[in-house]
Design goal:
The chain is mainly beta. The strands form 2 sheets. Strands 2, 4, 5, 6, 9, 10 and 11 form a 7-stranded mixed sheet that branches. Strands 1-3-8-7 form a 4-stranded antiparallel sheet, with no helix packed on it. A hairpin with a 4-residue loop joins strand 7 and strand 8. The protein is globular and about 40 Å long.
Length: about 120
Amino acid sequence: QVQLVESGGGLVQPGGSLRLSCAASRSILVYQLMGWYRQAPGKQRELVATTTSSGNTNYADSVKGRFTISTDNAKNTVYLQMNSLKPEDTAVYYCHIPGVGSGHWGQGTQVTVSS
């Protein structure tokens, strides 16, 4: 069972940047797919970005060109670099690894984009 801990959220003005981190309790080299999701108040959780063990990435249309997902295998960490943030990016962001049932989720980190 892997534990995931997200960090890096906070309050940022529109146009600003944040980098989220997701630290895993074990090596992430064993996982073929990792991703970031987000859930805004009153909305369903949605996929933001994924990355595969071969380095292929995929992004929601709403974040393409602004967000970048990456990994540091030595640190067992997945990152989400978020640039040009918009108020509609406000949400709780979750790290996810597919697995049995719903897979593995972190506790989430709050991102608020507001002036």
